[in-house]
Design goal:
The chain has five helices and five strands, in the order αβββββαααα. It is elongated. It is an alpha+beta fold. Bound molecules: zinc ion.
Length: about 190
């Protein structure tokens, strides 16, 4: 394995990055399991395209979707009824079957935040942008870069290897700056 411009060996970056990606992925997957943690009933997820949830704000009074605007509005506000009471829900639906009541075949969202009022739109929109599905996609992209590095390092294309090493270094030193500062590899 080669090294990049500074003294940190590239395999330290790869190991560190893999650890960070594993941890991020664990949080994103666990954040997608709120409904599935209901132990009182059988819960089945439906209409999901992947196991990372997409999140949305919806009105608690009429269930309309509330789309945050980071600049225009003071608070998240229902476009249909004007209510400031909103909840953070999954776009994906879940069917709940309980032995104690009639089966419900109607998929319900997972409620991440049941009731919130006067939510500042920049904060509300920022949360949506951290939806697990989005985070998992970014993790996947970074893992593909690491895989490319592994594949090329088995061959003899030194130029491509050097460029990918720089990309991985950037993902760590710039993309994970705060975590990298505290990592044992950064001071070795
Ligand atoms: Zn409404």
């Amino acid at each position: 394995m080669g090294t990049v411009a500074n003294a940190v060996p590239i395999d330290h970056y790869v190991a560190f990055l893999t650890r960070v990606l594993d941890e991020e992925e664990r949080w994103a997957r666990e954040a997608s399991r709120t409904s599935l943690r209901d132990t009182r009933v059988d819960v089945t997820r439906v209409d999901g395209t992947s196991d990372g949830e997409h999140w949305t704000w919806e009105c608690n009074r009429c269930d309309a979707t509330v789309v945050p605007d980071p600049v225009e509005d003071e608070f998240l506000e229902c476009p249909a009824c004007g209510s400031y009471s909103v909840s953070l829900r999954s776009v994906e639906g879940y069917v709940h079957r309980s032995p104690y009541s009639d089966d419900s075949e109607l998929p319900l969202p997972s409620f991440l935040i049941h009731t919130a009022e006067e939510v500042p739109p920049p904060f509300g929109g920022y949360l949506l942008r951290q939806s697990p599905a989005r985070v998992l996609a970014r993790i996947d992209a970074a893992r593909r870069i690491v895989k490319m590095y592994d594949a090329i390092s088995c061959g003899h294309d030194d130029e491509a290897l050097g460029m990918l090493a720089d990309v991985i270094e950037t993902l760590v030193v710039v993309g994970c700056a705060e975590e990298w500062r505290d990592a044992p590899e950064s001071s070795e």
